[in-house]
Amino acid sequence: MKNFKLDIDREKEKYDSVAISEVVSPSRMDSKLNLLGISEFYREPFEKYYEAIWETVKPSMVVLELGAGCGNHTAVVCEANAKVIALDISEKSLAVCKSLFSEVDTIVGDIEEIPLLTNSIDVVVSAGSLSYGDHEKVRKEIFRVLKPGGSLIVLDSLNHNLVYRINRYLHYRRGKRTLSTLQRMPNQDYIEEMVKPFKEVKISYFGSYLWLTILLSKISGTGFARKLDMKLEKHFPSKLGAFKFVLVCKDFDAAKS
């Protein structure tokens, strides 16, 4: 527990530092332009995540974005004209987010203890934030703030594939990520627990062969490698080897949480 607390402090310091050096570009206020700024190899799960938000969020809804940071993925929620609440541990990151999206309410807080009322949120969205908290605490807090009938949309990484696990461990050894984020990376058991209270669930997996096709692209070029990656994903899907997943859960039943 003590190490996890230290890791949270380190993560806050890291993202505060990133926010200070952040270059605010008006193009970040357009989600389609944001997608163009993501490498072609990594774009597909983000496209799926954005599509799920466009399809789910309505103007009358209240949306909570967990781990919003500097607002890298906030534009897509704002485009739905809903009431958006951005939560993050980094006050400096949220200041950048607010400078881009003045209509967004920003709240400094931990995803393990969301400072919002019970049953106050229509949709919870999260892009890459679930590993920053204890699985059970985060899950309970999401279920607590969601309204009955609410939705959850998540884009995050998995830790099943040995290639990706080694790469993340090397990043930890180089001081680029904390140990707790490695230990708390979402896994299949976590996903299964997360979906239980929802009546409608869709899960998409991405990047099972990404490590191979990125290496191949250095020899054959991006075009051929990308086509091969798409064919492998289509004909040999593997959720156990996946790099990322998009989870879309609808019609929350609080009695099952």
Question: Explain this structure to me?
Answer:
The protein has a single domain (2-159, 180-207, 244-256), classed as 3-Layer(aba) Sandwich (Rossmann fold), CATH 3.40.50.150. It has 257 residues and is an alpha/beta fold. The protein has helices spanning 2-20, 31-36, 43-56, 75-78, 91-100, 135-145, 162-173, 179-183, 188-195, 210-220, 222-235; strands at 62-66, 83-88, 105-108, 121-127, 146-157, 198-206, 244-252. The chain starts with a helix and ends in a 5-residue tail after the last strand. The model has no long low-confidence stretch (mean pLDDT 91). 38% of the residues are buried. 44% of the residues lie in helices and 20% in strands. The chain has a seven-stranded mixed sheet with strand order 3-2-1-4-5-7-6.
Radius of gyration: 18 Å
The CATH homologous superfamily: Vaccinia Virus protein VP39
Give the CATH architecture. 3-Layer(aba) Sandwich
Biggest pleated sheet:
7 strands, mixed
List the total number of helices: 11
Q: Can you list the strand order of the major beta sheet? A: 3-2-1-4-5-7-6
Euclidean distance between termini CA atoms:
25 Å
Strand content: 15-25%
> What global shape is seen?
globular
What is the total domain count?
Answer: 1
Structural class: alpha/beta
Helix content: 40-55%
Give the total of beta strands: 7
